Amino acid sequence: MHILITGAAGMIGRKLTARLVKDGKLNGQTIDKFTLTDVVAAEKPAGFAGAVDISTGDLAAAGAADKLIAQRPDAIFHLAGVVSGEAEIDFDKGYHVNLDGTRALLEAIRHADGYKPKVIFTSSIAVYGAPFPFAIPDEFHLTPLTSYGTQKAISELLLADYNRRGFLDGVGIRLPTICVRPGKPNKAASGFFSGIIREPLSGHEAILPVADTVRHTHASPRAAVGFLIHAAGLTRDQLGPRISLAMPGVCCTVAEQIEALARIAGPKVAARIKREPDELVMRIVAGWSERLDAKRAATLGFTAEANFDEIVKAHIEDELGGKIA
Fold first, then answer.
1. pLDDT value of position 130
2. What is the mean pLDDT of residues 313-325?
3. What is this structure's pTM?
4. Which domains does the chain have, with CATH numbers?
5. CA atoms within 13 A on the CB side of 265
């Protein structure tokens, strides 16, 4: 089985590749080749004996997607994208990467005669827009209030139409905020959700740009990788015509996040969080969904953490070797 991962150098791409190498199979088929592509070079997966093709470049550039699809990968995990805050600041870049790149990939698939791969697309709960009901079902109208959410919503519609027309076998997963993200802070507007946990656990000060009362839904990187792999195994009959759906997660306030951190690491660690309001971040976050009704995903077998304590513990286990600064 040949697997293509776009955005392979990113955090989720790296963790997905490592998990697939460890499993050795996807949907019962042995994985014998990876094609890993991103704007920077992905690392060759350790311990994989099969073929690995690593490429760099702009997926939206002329011919780039066609070259990748010419290899006819069996499954495509489309993770490449510009994060929310950057997409809001740089309008052209956001649409070029998040929309034009996705369209180029779908078009390359459409024009490959006799080819119908499984395509797993990472969407976002940013496709929803206020005002919200108490809990947002999959059927809630898509009225995003950010450029990032708009780009993801358009891409969802494209994926659904290409799926309907039989060009591919697609599924879109609307990720909650992935927390705790390891590594250095990025330009995602949601980055502080991870920062206020990751940085204090590593002995560093963290900035909180929003009020403690902000409520949001989270899942760990470990859960996100599980979502992607599980999504790859869903059939058209299981999904029906609505091929994009919200993933489960832990809904809590920022205050509850901090309380979980204090319970696990102690009040001195939690005291490393400093409050500095940021108007842009507050405006973006105010337009995001809070509670998700992920009953459909649960029925289809998707699982996530039960509480935020589990998310903090997963980060300590997976990224810190069980040690807290």
1. 85
2. 95
3. 0.94
4. 2-175+220-246 (3.40.50.720)
5. 31
> pLDDT of 292-311, one tens digit each?
999 999 999 999 999 999 99
| Angle in degrees, 0-180, between the axes of helices 11-23 and 221-232, rounded to the nearest 10 | 60
* Number of residues assigned to the chain: 325
The pLDDT confidence band at residue 189, using thresholds 50, 70 and 90, is: confident
234 φ/ψ sector (left φ>0, alpha ψ -120 to 50, else beta): beta
The secondary element (H helix, E strand) that includes residue 139 is none
Neighbours of 317 (CB within 10 A): 11
DSSP label at 125?
G
* pLDDT in the model for residue 323: 92
Instruction: Dump pLDDT digits (tens) for 46-103.
Output: 999 999 999 999 999 999 999 999 999 999 999 999 998 899 999 999 999 999 999 9
Exposed, middle or buried, 313 (CB in 10 Å: 0-12/13-18/19+)? Answer: middle
Q: Which of 314, 9, 282 is nearest to 178 (CA)?
A: 314
148: annotated active-site residue: yes
Strands 29-30 and 25-26: antiparallel
Torsion of CA 20, 25, 29, 30, to 10 degrees: 100
The token duo for 201 is 């656990």
**112/108 Cα distance (integer angstroms):** 6
Nearest to 73, CA basis, from 94, 92, 91, 52: 52
How far apart, in whole angstroms, are the C-alpha atoms of residue 234 and residue 113? Answer: 24
Rounded distance, CA 183 to CA 186, Å?
Answer: 9
- Active site residue: 95, 128, 148, 162, which one? 148
Q: What is the predicted pLDDT for the residue at 77?
A: 98
90-to-4, 52, 83, 198, 246 alpha-carbon distances in Å? 28, 33, 10, 27, 27
The span from the CA of 286 to the CA of 284, in Å, is 5
* 187: pLDDT strictly greater than 90: no
